[in-house]
Amino acid sequence: MSDLSLTKIRFRNGIWEGRISNAPASGARPDISVMFQDQPVADTKLEEGQAGGEWLISVPVPAEALADGVQTFVIFDAADSTRLGDFTLIAGEAVADDLRAEVELLRAELDMLKRAFRRHCLETT
User: What pTM value is reported for the model?
Assistant: First the structure.
């Protein structure tokens, strides 16, 4: 079990950034790997942070990850194969099944029912 913890900083311009905490204060670089479709993500950067035991990770999203569906990236402590975290991209057709899309559809249907009910109340009085 790894003592490392991962916190997301931001996802902007195709680069996911995070902070790895609780690394040994000796300054030894943690062995971190980022996997996408069971392949390591190229050009992942790991830089020492300002605080002791802190490292900053930058993961560039490869072009092949920009596709229909759900794409998941998993970040591991490679020293003991512990999963530190993950991030997900959702695009294209899979978005229609997304919960947010379902909520919007329910809101539209509720508005339609409210209008029909109000019209019914006016007609029956």
Answer: 0.74
